[in-house]
Amino acid sequence: MPKTPDYFQNRTILITGGASGIGRATAMIFAREGANVIVADIDAAGAEATAAEVRKSNTGAEAIAVDVTDRPSVDAMITRGIEAFGHIDFLFNSAGAAGRRSSFLDIDAELWRKTYALNVDGIFNTMQSVLPHMIENNHGVIVNIASMAHRRGGPGHSTHYASAKGAVVTLTMGVAREFVDRGIRALSISPGPIDTAFQAISSPELKQRMTDDVPMKRMGTPEEIGEMVLFMCSDACEYMTADTVYINGGGGFR
């Protein structure tokens, strides 16, 4: 929770991947705190559905269809978001996916390129597009979703995804340190297994192995990640930047 009551009132967060999973849960948490929410997703109908739920909290919401791998689409999203609310205070990059599970020798060029396009290029595009606006305002917080997988490498099923998420951690760190004197903070979150539609690409056996590796013996919830995003963006977290935060139920991914 923020130190200042009503800290998020009339502030605006842009959430990519906001149609479902962690992005949608985070949108509802920020709406609870009175923030305006820009819900961006390649799934236009899903983005609008999330925005409709946000509006029930009597806060502003804008649904925007975006392909984060396409820079003109991202630039248009940023422009529209600023036009809607006047400012973007927080960026949460939740959009990301592994595409499919694959052993290392079966990763083909298309899977590799698509994985990096979504998980790395997408975050690069959104950060580079919104940063001039945040610098102008001398304030902004960026939170990117990475993964515990980057510590383990995803052997046997998701080396491509783990590698891309490692790049997210590094990219976040570099941006944080470069713009810290401009009022910008940038952080990443490296979750363990989270119970979202993302896990649909995992076999029942892999899901069980991941759950068994967690001392709490369960996957995390999207809401548990969303509450951390809220804390990171708040005035209770002003001395934290450049780091990645591990949320894994005590799992042995280290």
Structural features, described:
- The protein is an alpha/beta fold and 254 residues long.
- It has a single domain, classed as Rossmann fold.
- It has eight helices and seven strands.
- It has helices spanning 21-32, 44-55, 71-85, 109-137, 149-152, 159-179, 204-212, 222-233, and strands at 12-16, 36-41, 61-65, 90-93, 140-145, 184-191, 244-247.
- Strands 3-2-1-4-5-6-7 form a seven-stranded parallel sheet, sandwiched between helices.
- α1 (21-32) links the parallel β1 and β2 (36-41).
- The protein is globular, with a radius of gyration of 17 Å.
What features would you highlight for this structure?
254 residues, 7-stranded parallel beta sheet
Topology at a glance:
Elements: E1 12-16, H1 21-32, E2 36-41, H2 44-55, E3 61-65, H3 71-85, E4 90-93, H4 109-137, E5 140-145, H5 149-152, H6 159-179, E6 184-191, H7 204-212, H8 222-233, E7 244-247
Parallel strand pairs: 1-2, 1-4, 2-3, 4-5, 5-6, 6-7
Helix pairs in contact: 1-2, 1-8, 3-4, 4-6
Summarize the structure.
With 254 residues, the protein is an alpha/beta fold. The protein has helices at 21-32, 44-55, 71-85, 109-137, 149-152, 159-179, 204-212, 222-233; strands at residues 12-16, 36-41, 61-65, 90-93, 140-145, 184-191, 244-247. Helices cover 45% and strands 15% of the residues.
Structural class: alpha/beta
Q: Radius of gyration over alpha carbons?
A: 17 Å
The order of strands across the largest sheet is 3-2-1-4-5-6-7
Overall geometry comes to globular
What helical percentage do the residues reach? 40-55%
Order of helices and strands: EHEHEHEHEHHEHHE
